[in-house]
Every structure is written in structure tokens, then in C-alpha cells.
Design brief:
alpha+beta, 14 strands, seven-stranded antiparallel sheet
Amino acid sequence: MSNKFFKIALLALPLLLTLSCSCGHLIPSAGGEESNILASPRKSFLMIDVGVVRRVCNKETKVCEASTASLISGSGFVVAEAAGGGSYVITAAHICKPPAFRERRETNTEITQYRLEVSAMTKEMMKFSLKVIEIDTKSDLCMLHGADLIRPVIKIADQQMVPGERTLNIAAPRGVLHGEAPIIIDGIYNGVSKGAQKALYTMLVAGGSSGSVIMNNKGEAVGVVSMMDMRFPYIVYSPTHEVLRKFVDRALFWHAKSAIGVDRAQHGISSMWKRIKNLDF
């Protein structure tokens, strides 16, 4: 009896394997949909590098020497197209303006001046210069402009998330940026911390993740990585969805010189910029 059962099992095995493989082929369709959702955000992602130019001048000889070094790295994303060309970028304020940074030091013999230079690296390893144009240190948000940067826009979500909903994050943790493969991390939205007045997420981050976009399952921005809880490295704080939306709205208002809201700036960018260019300021 046992031999007969064994023979039947052997005959049935190819059929079972076929069914298993057939079911497996159903999975990429869902994965393909998610890949399409992330296609533009992956192109919008930027690794932000902040370098410091150090210029030391000898008071006696009047000779000056300059050197450049990398100071801090983070992540960011394109939030809107600029009227005069290029794109607007969002990252964390502490990336644009490191807390310990000083512009000038002076001793009895030397004067040392420091200047920050910000650049962005795309997933294709193309480098672009950025200029800081708006900082909100309280919410830890910063907007920059890249004059030559043209990338897809990540839309700010219309609605905030509900606790328990899953999130997606694209970042360069520890400055890790593999060509054509920016790091994608999933997480969960936990709600708003009343004490910190920040949105709370559980997901894996590291130094270099600061400023990276937190998205809903539609690939829309709902937050920006600001800091993590040192007691538990999977707890991440972000400006709330409302704070992020208002910051982008306000910054675009001033720097695009238009009263058109951020909804139109992100839903109908091309038509908006045409109207702006025709305005007389």
C-alpha cells in the first residue's frame, strides 16, 4: 500500500510543481503595480551632500588657503518644477544648516571663514548644485533649488494617513547609494506624538536617511525623516503631513511668486508656470 501511495505521489509531483509555479507568476503583477507607483519617486530621490569650503587667511602675510571637505549627507526629493528652470527640492533643515556650523573664526594670527556647498546626486549618479532658499528649523524642513535639475515630482498627499497604514521610504542611509538602486524601506504610521508634536513612524533608518521622503501606498509624500529615537532605532519622527504641506505651500508661494496653491503647483505644474511667467511683478 505504501509503495502504491509513493508512486501516486511521484506522478502527482510535477502537477503540484506546475501549480506552484503558476501561482508564483501571479505575484509579479501586484509587484509590478507597486513598481510603477515607485517609478517616479525613485527618479525623484536625491542623495544630498553638504560640503564645507574652509578659507584660512594669515593676518601677517595676507596669504589665504582654501580647502573643501564633506560635512554631512542626507536624502531629499523633488517637490515641484521651477518657473525659471530646474526643480525645487525638500530635505531636512539640519542637513541644509548643520547646528554646529560657524561661518567665521578668528585668532590673533588667522581668520578662518567657512562656506557651505550643497549638491545632489541622482540614482544615475548625476551630480547637481543646489541652493538653499527656505529653512524652517522648528519643523526641520528645508527647500532648495537646483537650477539644472530636472526630475519627476513627488506629490504631497491630499490626506493624512491613518495609524496602522503602511509607508514607503526612499533614502541613502549612511550615504549608501547603489547606482540605479536607491534603498527602499517600508514602515508603519503610528500617529502624532503630542509631546514631540511630530508624526511617528516605525521603520529602519540611519544617518543619511534624514530628509528622505515618507510616502503612502500611492507614492505620495506624507512626511520627511527628521530624527530617530535613540532608545529604539526603529522609531522615527517626521513633521506632520499638515506641517509639511503648509511649508511646501508657503515656500512655493514666495519663491514661485504666485498665490496659486501647492495643489495646482503639483497637479498642473506646466500650466501654472506658464501663468506665472506672464504675471507682472
